[in-house]
Design a protein that fits this description.
The chain has one domain (2-215): Spore Coat Polysaccharide Biosynthesis Protein SpsA, Chain A (Alpha-Beta Complex). β2, α2 and β3 (53-56) form a beta-alpha-beta unit. It is of the alpha/beta class and 238 residues long. It has helices spanning 15-23, 43-49, 60-70, 89-99, 116-133, 148-153, 165-173, 192-197, 199-215; strands spanning 2-8, 30-36, 53-56, 75-78, 83-84, 104-111, 144-147, 179-189. It starts with a strand and ends in a 23-residue tail after the last helix. It is built from 9 helices and 8 strands. The protein has an 8-stranded mixed beta sheet with strand order 3-2-1-4-7-6-8-5, sandwiched between helices.
């Protein structure tokens, strides 16, 4: 039913957490495709040990597009490598997607661990903006669940975009299909971006990116200096 696509680059610390959480799902009709951008660690070996199909990727947008090319299912689920799925996530997400007759959906995300401040900040930075802007300016943070036919209709992710390519992807797709933020569905994501760059700096970057997309269009330069996997030491969150 669903092809899970994960772009990676040196993710040996986090990828096992995600793949193990997928393995433990009460759902079996899926395939996992890892689009690797040339990892120098054990990322590819780990992916293969979990039975994933490993292909050549690139930056996240390209990796996702390459993954779709070999995907065999009608639904696509895009995940970040530093995420993890709670129990029954796939079953619940797909069920709600079908019940709501959607073509495209995202859900709430929560940080790893039980730190209340981190949870508040995730709601403030990610979840509440999704709700407020759902009908006006849809936001595309992972995970993204979409029909393969819709992905192909919009010609996938724009590989020229340097930052927030997932948001542009969702906004474009939502013009052609039914989109919702599924509030009752949650998944987990690492806080490493905020820990590395700082909460305030990251928040300001998101605000600047939003303003740029509204007034000037997609960000196709390195103006925000965002890099794929610039975390030299991936710290597992408590």
């Amino acid at each position: 039913m669903v092809s899970i696509i994960i772009p990676t680059l040196n993710e040996e610390d986090y990828l096992p957490l995600l793949l193990e959480s997928i393995k433990k799902q009460n759902f079996s009709d899926y395939e996992v495709i890892v689009a690797d951008a040339g990892s120098k660690d054990k990322t590819k070996e780990i992916a293969k040990s979990y039975g994933c199909k490993v292909i050549k990727g690139g930056l996240p947008a390209r990796g996702r597009n390459e993954g779709v090319k070999v995907a065999k299912r009608d639904l696509l689920l895009f995940l970040d490598a530093d995420s993890a799925l709670p129990k029954d996530f796939l079953k619940k997400f797909l069920k709600k997607f079908k019940e709501r007759k959607l073509d495209l959906a995202v859900c709430f995300i929560q940080p790893f661990g039980k730190n209340k401040i981190d949870r508040f900040l995730y709601d403030f930075f990610h979840n509440y903006p999704k709700l407020v802007l759902e009908k006006v300016l849809p936001n595309g943070y992972m995970p993204i669940l979409i029909k393969k036919s819709l992905h192909q209709k919009i010609r996938g992710f724009d590989e020229e975009i340097k930052f927030a390519e997932d948001t542009i992807y969702v906004r474009k797709a939502s013009k052609y299909g039914r989109f919702e933020v599924l509030r009752a569905i949650q998944t987990f994501s690492s806080q490493r971006r905020f820990q590395k760059d700082g909460w305030l700096r990251t928040f300001l970057r998101y605000i600047l990116a939003e303003l740029h997309m509204i007034f000037f269009g997609p960000i196709k330069s390195d103006i925000l200096k965002s890099q794929f996997n610039h975390y030299l030491k991936n710290r597992i969150d408590n």
